[in-house]
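2024-03-11 09:14:02 INFO worker-7 job=invfold-0412 stage=load source=structure_tokens
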């Protein structure tokens, strides 16, 4: 990204004091992988202080000073924003042109909203008020903004009376990539969960949440996250800071459902997938993954990527024992346990980076789980057709072990539309209705057994199965 912006890059090689340091090998990798000239590479040990002065001198000598016109219309880039209980939203901005000072009316170019600046300042390192922010300066702006969602990272701040005509390049609305349902274990705690989510969203504009109702789990929220790490952090904060016990459904990614009339529906939950008759095809997000690994683990990692429907784009040998693999992978295939499997396959030596490539049509289907003919919406999944049978059988088998036996047979089915692809059953408990018949005619015992059989049949038709909480926890929790 720095190369794309034509920025000056100072190459620093740290930790040269370690006994297993290989500076020459790493120098060659930097040239081969990134394409940087390492003639001016600085060898540094931050622990011992070796070479630190050379870094500071290189910054002064090689990094150009900020350019900008103080008399031009104000133009600043929002780097970050957070909510303060006493001052409202605090914006962290980098100024390119013009000046920002208290009392000035500013506008946010993405929304067109205007506000009046109350205070500007810098961090040195503690917050310190200043008279103005000019070109090249990074500082905070407080303008009596109530909602952190108004201040999107990458947006442009300008003067409301003399606005900039062109916004700064690179602004993108943050899109959640991973979605999961958050439900309180105790339904009475729904209000506490709603309050906690509202407070978290004040300081995290990339975290989205909207109310959702599940027949199985009750009232909760459908939440969007930037990735799995973001999801785990939010979940941990809700549990630790707000004392909530949560059920987190299995994470899924956002799909695009293209209907027969050409309209596109954004799908972040299997329950929101259009009916099959109205659906033309489903598009799934595909990522480009770059994997660095030792060559001795190449076979195991390639096998893992192929199992996850990966398409190999490039294989590059950096040296006799270092390889870079590039794979196109569906995001849904890596969102759960791919990283753990990658570490296991490579004994912890492989590292991975990825970026979103595109949305691509794929043969995806909605897998429904039925208990005695009734769909359990919280267990529905969107899976590839080739994997639907194995996934359906696995879920059905796990449910069979967890659902307690009833007085009637419980039938567990996995289906795609109206087609059942897997079936398990929990046998009925046999109650001894003839225990009190001491002797007498055998026809009396037969009469009681027939009556029991009819009762079980009638109960199966109208009865409902209470699925225990442990079953949902086992199927849905990420850690399992």
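2024-03-11 09:14:09 INFO worker-7 stage=emit residues=480
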């Amino acid at each position: 990204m720095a190369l794309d912006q034509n920025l000056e890059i100072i190459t620093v090689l740290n930790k040269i004091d370690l006994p297993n340091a290989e500076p020459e090998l790493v120098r060659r990798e930097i040239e081969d992988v990134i394409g940087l000239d390492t003639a001016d590479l600085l060898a540094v040990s931050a622990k011992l202080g070796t070479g630190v002065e050379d870094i500071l001198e290189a910054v002064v000598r090689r990094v150009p000073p900020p350019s900008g016109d103080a008399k031009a219309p104000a133009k600043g880039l929002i780097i970050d924003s957070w909510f303060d209980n006493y001052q409202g939203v605090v914006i962290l901005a980098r100024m390119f042109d013009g000046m920002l000072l208290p009392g000035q009316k500013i506008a946010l170019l993405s929304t067109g909203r205007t506000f009046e600046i109350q205070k500007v300042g810098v961090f040195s390192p503690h917050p310190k008020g200043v008279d103005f922010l000019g070109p090249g300066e990074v500082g905070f702006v407080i303008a009596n903004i109530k909602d952190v969602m108004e201040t999107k990272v990458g947006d442009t701040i300008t003067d409301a009376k003399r606005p900039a005509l062109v916004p700064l390049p690179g602004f993108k609305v943050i899109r959640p990539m991973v979605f999961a349902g958050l439900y309180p274990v105790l339904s009475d705690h729904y209000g506490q969960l709603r309050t906690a989510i509202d407070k978290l969203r004040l300081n995290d504009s990339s975290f989205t949440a909207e109310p959702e109702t599940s027949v199985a789990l009750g009232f909760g929220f459908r939440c969007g996250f930037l990735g799995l790490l973001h999801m785990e952090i939010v979940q941990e904060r809700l549990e630790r800071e707000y004392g909530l016990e949560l059920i987190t459904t299995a994470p899924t990614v956002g799909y695009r459902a293209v209907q027969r009339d050409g309209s596109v529906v954004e799908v972040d939950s299997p329950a929101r997938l259009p009916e099959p008759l109205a659906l033309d095809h489903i598009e799934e997000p595909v990522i480009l993954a770059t994997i660095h690994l030792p060559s001795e683990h190449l076979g195991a990692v390639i096998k893992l990527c192929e199992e996850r429907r990966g398409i190999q784009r490039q294989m590059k040998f950096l040296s006799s024992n270092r390889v870079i693999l590039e794979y196109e992978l569906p995001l849904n295939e890596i969102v759960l346990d791919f990283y753990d499997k990658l570490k296991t396959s490579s004994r912890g030596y492989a590292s991975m980076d990825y970026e979103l490539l595109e949305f691509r049509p794929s043969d995806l289907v909605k897998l429904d789980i039925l208990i005695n003919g009734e769909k359990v919406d919280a267990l529905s999944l969107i899976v590839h057709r080739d994997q639907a049978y194995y996934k359906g059988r696995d879920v059905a088998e796990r449910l069979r072990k967890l659902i307690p036996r009833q007085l009637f047979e419980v039938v567990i089915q996995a289906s795609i539309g109206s087609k059942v692809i897997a079936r398990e059953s929990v046998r009925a408990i046999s109650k001894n209705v003839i225990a009190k018949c001491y002797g007498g005619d055998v026809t009396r015992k037969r009469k009681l057994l027939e009556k029991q059989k009819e009762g079980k049949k009638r109960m199966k038709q109208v009865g409902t199965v209470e699925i225990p909480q442990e079953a949902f926890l086992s199927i849905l929790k990420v850690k399992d």
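2024-03-11 09:14:09 INFO worker-7 stage=report msg="Residues 459-463, 476-480 have pLDDT under 50 and may be disordered."
2024-03-11 09:14:10 INFO worker-7 job finished
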